[in-house]
Amino acid sequence: MENYLLKVKISKLYYQQNLSKVDISKKLRTSRFKIARLLEDAVKEGIVTINIKEPKNTYLDLENNLEEKFRIFRAYVVDSSSDYNLTKRNLGRAAANCLDNIVYDGDIIGIAWGTTIYEMINALPAKIDKKNISVVQLTGGLDQIETKYNAIELSSRLSKTFNSSCYQLYAPAIVDSIQIKKLLLSDSSIKRTLDMFSKVNIAIVGIGSVSPKPSTLLYKEGFLKEKDIKKIFLSHAAGDINTYFYDVNGNNCKSELEDRAVGMNIEQLKRVRHVIGVAGGEFKAKAILAALKGKIINILVTDYKTAKILLEK
User: Fold this and answer.
1) Res 2: pLDDT
2) Who's near 305: CB < 8 A, 6+ residues apart?
3) Integer angstrom CA distances of residue 23 from 20, 33, 35, 158
4) 223 against 80, higher pLDDT
5) Per-residue pLDDT tens digits for 247-277
6) Cα–Cα distance between 276 and 260 in angstroms, integer?
7) Cβ atoms of residues 260 and 174 within 8 Å
8) Closest listed residue to residue 158, CA positions, set 129, 124, 119
9) Is the separation of the CB atoms in 30 and 38 below 8 Å?
10) In this structure, are residues 228 and 295 in contact, taking their beta carbons and an 8 Å threshold?
11) What was the pLDDT predicted at 4?
């Protein structure tokens, strides 16, 4: 009984009066190691109970399970909606919160293109007060897609948020031939941006699916034809990031399309410290899973239904 009362006394001093373990040890003339052990026992024995009030519509346990299973830095899980556009807006808000949380003075942020990244830019505050930020465009542009989704526009908007320098990539995402690509890469302004790829320490990318149906804007906007998709299937692709395709294990497929692509490739992306993959929808689960298995991304922003599928795989 005496030992029990001692645990209660120590718990009250620590949790209610906010005394440190050192202060308690001095007050009770015992070692702080004994105080620490008795506090641990108090929790184990139910003398102290901890009640965490988790807000509604949050999935912290699910996020923790994703982080543990895939050994990633962070997972953000948002509500799934029958309206996919609403799901994308939810993803955008979570991605904006993620970026705001992890960015520090001096960071170099790489940004790709796509509809979910567009929603992230929309959700960011008008200004984020960080010093010496640089923004780097990770993929070339695409005339076929709406301007608001293009990497040139998105990188420009992000740099305004941080009042930062912006390294843009004035080249198509995919060119017609390897010869044209070589010529473009020799251009000084393009080379200046490409040289920044090795310095990027935060990258924000979308994830495109190949099966059960292609979801990449390259396909939706008609840039990729059926013959291109057939070649991609033959390369056993599971998904694409920055117009570069990878297989179910997250390994580069080295498709013919890649030889004509201009942007940060899969191997370069794997060397970036923090890669935020923003993608949701059950049809993208295979592509997201492959990106996680291959360690292409190490921060995931996804929706509830997709997260449940990933944990079951």
Assistant:
1) 57
2) 80, 282
3) 5, 12, 10, 48
4) 80
5) 999 998 877 777 888 899 999 999 999 999 9
6) 25
7) yes
8) 124
9) no
10) no
11) 84
266 in Cβ contact with 217 (< 8 Å): no
Contact (Cβ atoms closer than 8 angstroms) between residue 244 and residue 265:
yes
What is the pLDDT averaged over residues 141-164?
86
Angle between helices 60-70 and 304-312 (to 10 degrees): 40
> Please, are residues 96 and 116 in contact by the beta-carbon 8 Å criterion?
no
Spatial separation of the C-alpha atoms in residues 46 and 63, rounded to whole Å: 27
Task: Sort strands 108-111 and 202-206 into parallel, antiparallel or unpaired.
Answer: parallel
Confidence of residue 285 (pLDDT cuts 50, 70, 90): very high
d(CA 285, CA 309): 7
> Does residue 172 have a cis peptide bond before it, meaning omega lies within 30 degrees of 0?
no
Residue 99: which of 193, 2, 30, 202 has the closest Cα? 202
Q: Give me the mean pLDDT over the 52-73 stretch.
A: 87
